[in-house]
Amino acid sequence: MSEVTAGKRAGVLAAACAVVAERGADATRFSDVTAVTGVGVSTLQYYFGSREDMLIAVFRYAAQSDFDAVSERLAAAADAWAKLLVIASHLTGAVGSDTGWRLWVESWRWALRDEELRAEVLGDYTRWHELLASIIAAGVSAGRFASAAAPLDVARQALALIDGLALPVALGDPQVTGEMAGDLLADGLGRLVGLRAAAL
User: Fold this and answer.
1) How confident is the model at residue 200 (pLDDT cuts 50, 70, 90)?
2) pLDDT at position 135, please?
3) 3-class secondary-structure state, position 110
4) Distances (CA, A) of 179 to 10, 99, 121, 174, 193
5) pTM confidence score
6) Cβ neighbours of residue 159 under 8 Å, at least 6 residues apart?
7) What totals of helices (H) and strands (E) does the chain contain, helices first?
8) Neighbour count for residue 25 (Cβ, 10 Å)
9) Average of pLDDT values for 92-108?
């Protein structure tokens, strides 16, 4: 596939993410993506093959986009605590839209029936766990966190907390807004890592 074609395919994937987030994977057809992008069904078939392959490509694209967006924001974060808050705010939809989280939910559902996607989703979780663990370990080394537990264990607990608060946000629960989820996460994560006051 040429660089130009790959770029057009990426653009289609970005648009298809919004379609899947809105309609759900089961209800998304080539024609729905065509309606949004203007790209013909035959071109979509060339890019992806089957509808199912397109959906899996959407899940992969969304997962990588989330990770890339967070990685870019982490570069500007001042310390380990700020980095944890960047991840929490992004993954709960406390900033931006909840499209990414809606796609996570759809990918979980699809992964229950697709062994290959299941392995990828679990791989994505491993990547988030490792990122969180590295930040937690750095925070402990810097004296910002007081946790004595293994950083990977704390990372698993942190991501479980993020998931648990992000789901009601994605579902539109009026009792758990993105802002509220962010505040609850900051409190919960602070307790989990043993947050210490920043040095003056």
Assistant:
1) very low
2) 97
3) helix
4) 31, 16, 27, 11, 21
5) 0.87
6) 125, 128, 129, 132
7) 9, 0
8) 21
9) 75
